[in-house]
Amino acid sequence: MSPDLTVSIEELPVSGRDAGPYGITTGPDGALWFTMVHHGRIGRMTPGGELTSHQLDPASCGPTVIASGPDGALWFTEYQSHRIGRITTAGEIGSFALPSPDAGPFGIAAGADGAMWFTETNAGRIGRITTGGEVTEFPLPVPGAFPSAIAAGPDGAMWFTMNQADAIGRIGLDGDVTVHPLPTAGAAPVGITAGADGAMWFVEIGAGRIGRITTGGRIDEFPLPDRGARPHAIAVDGHGDCWFTEWGANRVGRITPDGRIDGYGLPTPASEPHGIAAGPDGTIWVALEIGALARLTPSGPR
After folding, report:
1. What residue numbers does the annotated binding site for substrate cover?
2. Looking at the domain assignment, is residue 1 inside a domain?
3. What residue numbers does the annotated binding site cover?
4. Neighbours of 237 (CB within 10 A)
5. Which of 128, 218, 220 is nearest to 176 (CA)?
6. By the number of CB atoms within 10 A of the CB, which of 94, 243, 254, 298 ranks highest?
7. What are the φ and ψ backbone dihedral angles of 91, each rounded to 5 degrees?
8. What pLDDT does residue 2 have?
9. Residues known to be catalytic
10. What is the pLDDT of residues 144-156, one digit of tens each?
């Protein structure tokens, strides 16, 4: 990517400071859908700035990560109520209980098999839910791994971070799990996404690094200029670059496939950037826990 690329940043208020916008994704309707973890709401914002929101029941359910499903709806984890939620683009809401008590579901993503796959942080399991609500759970071979984010890989499997095990996991659609330990102790990986280069990219919140793992298990790590930046979530754009939130540094970073890293400071101090998603129009959207969405618009040679 050209060093002449510039990024303009606009912050759009979506809630009070205590609502906690957290996860964000682009929906099948071209709008941005996001969770408000502390108020139990799902928000929707069009690229033009039109805002609506939907109240969940109970309000204390703790909606966390949200993703588009194969059925044209949005699916999200309810971390506090240990359920998986579903909302249509028309605002119809459903919710499904999990077999494991106190599972702590966090990450969620659509799989190649037409189901949604999710992590259970407290139970140490990977879950699968069909669009009809049937749940299957797969235990992990590493106790206390705290599986966090999950994403579909180019090999048809699901890849996930094991935050407390300093490892990346892979689960086949048959439930077979492979664990890839990371070279760096205390890496504590969180966000993960499929890159445009056929590899998985992830963030190491504990070590201040961006990681890359091939489907064959080769791992590369790229240190951030600010090792205390606390990178949290990561998403790929239409040009093949990965964008990530730096929760501890109040920045959004970008890494190219060849490992070049740039950072962009957010306008409001201590805005607590969490979820990140590529928008439908070449923009990057970030959920700020202070009650806003940030829209980053890159411009210049690509």
Report:
1. 232
2. no
3. 232, 272, 289
4. 19
5. 128
6. 243
7. 95, 10
8. 45
9. 274
10. 999 999 999 999 9
